[in-house]
Predict the structure.
Amino acid sequence: MVQLEQGKEALVIVDVQNDFLPGGRLAVPGGDEVIPVLNRYIAGAERDHLPIFATRDWHPPNHCSFRTQGGQWPVHCVMETEGAGFPASLRLPSRAVLISKGMLPDKEAYSGFEGTALEERLHGAGVGTLYVGGLATDYCVLNTVKDALNKGFRVFLLKDAVRAVNLRPEDGRNAEQEMRRFGALAFQLVEWPECAKHQAV
Ligand code: VGL
Ligand code: ZN
């Protein structure tokens, strides 16, 4: 693994979109519970002037991951639809950088780095350390965190701001373990802004 200079810190919010919330088309159990927690991280990032990135699943209507196309998932996060939108209760500032993914019909993109400018944008902003939360722990958070670590970013997983799909009940737990094995550190709201930041959990 390449270790970049630690660089600046950024908040990365993964796929907190209506379709992944209770009542949505691919509802993540307890998905709405991350919103007030992420709002507090956002407030911290605002106060500390950290860049904020928000990824979104942004699929064409014939995306290969949909059951209608032989894929695994119900139709979800179709671009320009309400389900693909961010909930009004998520206090994303207008300066947040939006990263859309999964836009090609024939390509799944669980990671926010896949087919996007996220890496460039982070480097451009001098960012070396990411605080990552959102949905879902066992898919897009997992893959985004693993890619980030492979690319040399230091990653703190926001343990209180992620929820899992849990198709198998242990998927979320396993995903968290896997992220830790890859080098992710755990972080919780109580630690912001005091630096328990160098502590492996
Ligand atoms: C996701 C399943 C399908 C996610 C996206 O954001 O975790 N999960 N598409
Ligand atoms: Zn998707």
